[in-house]
Fold this protein.
Amino acid sequence: MKLFVKIIILLAVGLQLSWGQTKDSLQQKKVYTSWEKAIKEPEKVYRLNLSNQKINVDSPVWIKFKNLEYLNLNNNQLKTLPKGVLSLKKLKVLELSGNDFKKVPEEISTIKSLEEVYLNEYDYLNLPQSIEALAKLPNLTMLHLENNNLDQLPSQIALLKNLAQLYLNQNRFKEIPKELKGLQHLQELDLKDNPIRVPMNLQENMNFGFRINF
């Protein structure tokens, strides 16, 4: 396979440590898994997991979750993003995997604080339009597109100027997507569980500006 990536940009060590510390701090906070319990003390809720509950989450109560940083809405048969979620000013991580979206709604751009988005397990997601919506998130650095039956990436992926980590696990890629050349700040690319041929000299090649996991 021809090695085409010419990026040599390395992210500063301080920035890497900052990401790690922020994520560790968030993971140490209590996870609420009951909507009923969460709405009783919304100001105390930093992490909320409502996955696989198929509940009506389109509620005006969302505006009370002023400290919410992590929200998991996986597998809830959602066709659009609940309007109340757009009011979450501190939300950093949003999991939307396994829902019924045809595309990521443009309104997601109002959640300026978002740093990480999960869009796993979609066979019919309009990825070009979805990426165009995500590109309006100034702080987005991590994107998950795992188990989406992908064998190529749209050119719009280059719009994600600040993307540092991209997860493409469990797809159908046979080679490293050439569209990644436009991601100037990419630090880590995860391609595990793809039918990809790993270049024999990949370990020795220094032209890659990001780590690749196979």
